[in-house]
Amino acid sequence: MRFFSEEKVSEVRDRSSIVEVISDYVNLKKAGRNFRGLCPFHSEKTPSFMVNEEKQIFHCFGCGAGGDVFSFLMKVNQISFPEAVEELARRYGVSLPLQTASPSQTKEAARREALFQINELASNYFQEILTRRREGEPARQYLAQRGIREQTIDEFHLGYAVDRWDGLLQYLRKRGASLSMASELGLLIPKGKESWFDAFRGRVMFPIRNLQGRIVGFGGRAIGTGHPKYLNSPDSSLYHKGEILYGLREAKTFLRQSDQVMIVEGYFDLLMLHQSGLRQSVATLGTALTAHHLRLLRRYTERMVLVFDGDAAGQQASLRLLPLFLEEGLWPKVVLLPEGEDPDGFLRKGHLEDFKRRIAEGPLLMDFFLDRLAKIHPVKSVEGRAKCADEALAMIQRIPDVIQRDFYLKALAERLELEVSLLRNRIGRGLKGRLRMETGTQGPLSQRYDSRAEETVVRLMTQDPRWVGRVLEERIIDEFESPSLQQIARAMEEVYRRRGDLPLSEVMAGLEETLQEKLRRIIFKEVVFEEGIEEKILEDCVQKIRERRLKRDKSELRKRIREAEKETGGEVPEALLAEHQALARREALLRKSGP
Ligand SMILES: [Zn+2]
Fold first, then answer.
1. Cα 159 from Cα 115, distance rounded (Å)
2. pLDDT by residue (tens digit) across 265-299?
3. Does 389 map to a domain?
4. Quick one: pLDDT at residue 378?
5. Closest-CA residue to 265 (of 210, 342, 345, 211)
6. Same domain as 361, residue 323
7. How far apart are CA 201 and CA 228, in angstroms?
8. Ligand 1 centroid to residue 489 C-alpha, Å
């Protein structure tokens, strides 16, 4: 693999035209300051894929894909970064020096490779014991009793870690593997200097593979009295739980074929679904589903089905995911199993046809949510209806698509026998104030916060570096409420202080992927400020951010004073009173400078 200096990469990026390059793959049309077209990374009928020539970035509002000209080529042609650099250098006539990898880069690549090989060795060892050794008998019996077939054991490379302190340790030592690296991967546990013991003992082992088929970690199910029941590899430089789905590599072709994905929670749920012919399944493995997981899955299909346990905990778990799905613009279905059943057990009892029927008839998670609300809050009472409306609206306002949002507003209005305009207004005002019902009963206030002012400040900073200077003068970034916007603004501040300018690629390079995406979304929002009013906009935003911060500080202080009063029986400590006065002074100052 080749490596290029940062200057070379910048030169290639500067010479390239992102619009020209992407036009080879996408029919782009001018739209305001941007270009727009149908996204090549997900299927869509209305174009939500945007390209900005001036900033040299692209972003898809449908699937979240985005980046610079290099990431576009890498993604669309499935090539590596150096290959993308070479292709563009050829096209735009930039000569690349022949250069080999720097020693530190070669070392890092070699280290990763060594880590992968240790996982591979460990997996071979576990597999050999399960399938060929006498010591594997308890695990073979256990798996047979759970209905797992040999073919499934082979396909998923299941294994067994014997109930010994040094089984894997001896095996790795004999093969000259680095034991400290094995401990870094969570396979061994250190017990003093240069001495270790096996982390997995008496467990059926599930190797967890990435999309390239390489083992990044393991899960282990105790077959005896071992505690905990499930043990997973810790996050490591190879394994990031929020990015890996168990079984995705085996399922991916089936996801496309069936245009559907079933999401389960456990290893055995997944194996059983797979064995039952429902091979379009993946498992989350105890970690909560993340936005990253969903974006990974939607490369294959948008039709998602949650299959959780048929008890209160399972239902709660699926409902907790609703906001995540809504924000990604996804509409999952939920399969409801009989009380007390889990997918694994239900299928093992032979209810495959029943299971398939439940998939077909499963309600949308959103409908399931609304049904449940109506059950929890007595809609006969005014108060119950207000509570119900507010909880539902808090969810509905997360739906990005206007038409779908309106559909659910109408459905909700009908259910609660309220005027839909009442609900629309309420959502339009960001759920501020109280929902006024016939008798004026109060509904609970939603905690949604409004980050528009902070977003505008960030957008101004991206438009012209001179605004960064102004923003820093105001020291307003410290007062941001949104942690993600604050991180983005700080990254811009850092680059600006170092460079005196704001090259976007450098800002992006310092941000994690979800923040990069957020920043792209902000940049692409079609808001054109009229020449000359930016200063006024900035001032208004700064004022608003300060006011909100003051409000937060005030309510925080009020809480602390109340607590102190409770403790001391009515007396308020000096320090809190002083803070109270300081806040009052800040408020007076803010009033004076305000509109
Ligand atoms: Zn897309």
1. 19
2. 999 999 999 999 999 999 997 678 888 898 788 87
3. no
4. 78
5. 342
6. yes
7. 11
8. 26
Q: Would you state the structure tokens that stand for residue 263, as one six-digit string? A: 């999401």
User: Which domain, by its residues, includes 151?
Assistant: 103-239
52 Cα–ligand 1 center, Å: 15
Cα 577 to middle of ligand 1, angstroms: 54
Residues 253 and 255: their CA atoms lie apart, in Å, by 5
How many angstroms separate the alpha carbon of residue 279 from the centre of ligand 1?
A: 25
Specify whether 14 is located in the same domain as 87: yes
In CATH, what number is assigned to the domain containing residue 73? 3.90.580.10
Q: 584 alpha carbon to ligand 1 midpoint, in Å?
A: 49
Report CA(42)–ligand 1 centroid distance (Å): 5
Residues 257, 197 share a domain: no
| CATH code, 235 | 3.90.980.10
Q: What Cα–Cα distance (Å) separates residue 209 from each residue in 116, 150, 245, 251, 269?
A: 10, 19, 9, 12, 17
CA of 68 to the centre of ligand 1 (A): 15
Instruction: Tell me the per-residue pLDDT of 173-215, one tens digit each, with 9 for 90 and over.
Output: 999 999 999 999 999 999 988 899 999 999 999 999 987 788 9
Q: Which amino acid is at 368?
A: F
Measure 270 CA to ligand 1 centroid, in angstroms.
28
Does 487 share its domain with 513? yes
In degrees, to the nearest 5, what angle opens at C-alpha 124 toward C-alphas 123 and 128? 115
**Residue 256 forms part of a structural domain:** yes
User: According to the model, what pLDDT value does residue 441 have?
Assistant: 30
Q: How far is the CA of 263 from the centre of ligand 1 (A)?
A: 22
| pLDDT at position 446 | 30
Exposure letters 141-180 (e unless 16+ CB within 10 A, then b): ebbeebbbeeeebeebbbbbbbbeeebbbebbeeeebebe
In this structure, the answer to whether residues 232 and 290 fall within a common structural domain is no
In terms of Cβ atoms closer than 10 Å to its own Cβ (0-12, 13-18, 19+), residue 414 is exposed
Q: How far does residue 44's CA lie from ligand 1's centre (Å)?
A: 8
Q: 67 is written with which tokens?
A: 């980046």
d(CA 488, CA 462): 11
Q: Separation of 212 CA from ligand 1 center, angstroms?
A: 22
